[in-house]
Write a structure and sequence with these properties.
alpha+beta, Nucleotide Exchange Factor Grpe, Chain A, domain 2, three-stranded antiparallel sheet, three-stranded mixed sheet, 6 strands, adenyl-nucleotide exchange factor activity, protein homodimerization activity, unfolded protein binding, GrpE
């Protein structure tokens, strides 16, 4: 058996400074695990507390309203209910008026479309009547029929336009020819080939015209 050497034994022992520098990794160990496990429970507890607080606030508000109603006299309660009924009635009346206005606009639009369709179908016949009226003599019976047709369209808001001498308007007139005129100071209608028709501001057909234009 070899002799015990005290100096060699002490030299082989590790230094205390090195042992103190070797610390356990952060976030590990039983304490860290307990903290991580407790985080979801804490969040759930906070959510439950917020929900309970919101429900408590709503309950308190309802209780205050009920208490306010309890403090009203029978006359005050009747006035409160009457005001609520009046507000509901006014709201329903406003909705009905809006519905009625929309329905009226739709009805007017469909009516106008129907008139335009009929007028468009009759335009060739109306043009023939205008040519006969301008270039030949019309007997009394034909004049009566023509006048009735004009009055019927006037009844539905249809107006004829396009007269010789009126100012040329490209939004209403369709110029099929520009004729230089030394006496013209501005573009005017010289000849109406086909009359135009409109309902209100809507042009159904532009008047086809010959335009007298200034020279130069």
């Amino acid at each position: 058996m070899s002799d015990f050497n005290k100096d060699e034994y002490l030299n082989d022992l590790p230094d205390m400074d090195n042992l103190s520098g070797q610390t356990a990794p952060s976030g590990t160990g039983p304490a860290a695990d307990d903290a991580a496990a407790g985080a979801p429970e804490s969040a759930a507890a906070d959510t439950a507390a917020d929900s309970a607080q919101a429900e408590g606030s709503a309950t308190a508000a309802n209780a205050e309203d009920a208490a306010a109603d309890d403090t009203l006299t029978p006359l005050g309660q009747a006035k409160k209910e009457a005001a609520e009924y009046l507000e509901a009635l006014q709201r329903e009346r406003a909705e009905f008026i809006n519905f009625r206005n929309r329905a009226q606009k739709e009805q007017d639009r469909f009516r106008q479309h129907g008139i335009i369709d009929v007028l468009t179908a009759l335009l060739p016949a109306l043009d023939d009547i205008d040519r006969i009226r301008e270039h030949s003599e019309m007997d009394d019976s034909f004049k009566a029929v023509s006048a009735k047709i004009d009055k019927a369209f006037e009844k539905f808001g249809v107006e004829k336009f396009g007269e010789k001498g009126e100012d040329f308007d490209p939004t209403k007139h369709d110029a099929i020819l520009h004729k230089p005129d030394p006496t013209a100071e501005k573009e005017t209608v010289d000849t109406v080939v086909e009359a135009g028709y409109h309902i209100g501001d809507r042009v159904i057909r532009a008047a086809r015209v010959v335009v007298a234009s200034p020279q130069g």
